[in-house]
Amino acid sequence: MLLCVDVGNTQTALALYPDDGDGPAVWDGRLRTEPRATGDEIALLVRGLLGARVADVTAVAALSTVPVLLRELRGMVGRHFAGLDHLLVEPGVRTGVPLLVDNPKEVGADRVVQALAAHERFGGPCVVVVFGTSTTVDAVSARGEFLGGAIAAGVGVAAEALALRAAALRPVELVVPRSVLGRNTVESMQAGLVLGAAAQVDGLVTRVGREIAARDPEGRAPVAVVASGGFAPVVVDQCATVTHHVPDLTLLGLRSVHRRRARSRDERAAKRAARS
């Protein structure tokens, strides 16, 4: 089994995928991301969640969007899953996704593998929308190139900031209100946060779609708008532009990078064997 680990700013997502085939995850779990955690602590939590399934792990693919945890994650994989095939997606690692941006090393590994997973599943050009700690709207060309995108405050971050900075407001549950015309303070905040996030994404997707079409020699618009992220279940049904919701998009992207590297390694080995 391939263990995929996505260490995000707020939560860490994990999944086990079969070694062969394109089937869904056979197991998945989530942890709260602790920025000061050590590699040993991360391993303890991961192994605890896996339980007896840890014996089924044959390979590990991981990434971290939290810079201070990248070194710890690298140590965790190398020490606690020693002897297994492992891959840590970070700047400089080949993913097969051309990054057509000013500084490719600035692009988060999560955005790269999300672009890969969306393009492999739906083709291109496409748009990837992720509702997480931040809300990202990224463009992927017909050839699978990462063209760039927009980053905005996530729904949860916006809710926390509003309650913190406005004395008369308090934290609210992030759910869809009865109407955009809130009849009390809670519903008014929910309308602004949830429905406002949906309207923001629809506006950005429309603009990104025009940019993609303008750059495509054939003037093709996005064939799919793919949503993912922890807050997607709250917002995605309110978005007019989103066509697909794939909850484990980042983990699927990690699986794709791992498979590409394995195929490349096998091809090189076959060529060496043929020459000898």
UniProtKB/TrEMBL annotation:
A monovalent cation. Ammonium or potassium. ATP binds at residues 6-13, 133. It is found in: Cytoplasm. Pathway: Cofactor biosynthesis; coenzyme A biosynthesis; CoA from (R)-pantothenate: step 1/5. One of its GO terms (molecular function) is kinase activity. Pfam families: Pan_kinase. It catalyses: (R)-pantothenate + ATP = (R)-4'-phosphopantothenate + ADP + H(+). Substrate binds at residues 108-111, 185. Its main location: cytoplasm. Its EC number is 2.7.1.33. Keywords: ATP-binding, Coenzyme A biosynthesis, Cytoplasm, Kinase, Nucleotide-binding, Potassium, Transferase. The active site is at 110 (proton acceptor). It is an enzyme of class 2 (transferase). Its cofactor is K(+); NH4(+). It comes from the Bacteria. Belongs to the type III pantothenate kinase family. Homodimer. Catalyzes the phosphorylation of pantothenate (Pan), the first step in CoA biosynthesis. This is Type III pantothenate kinase. It comes from Actinomycetospora chlora. The gene is coaX.
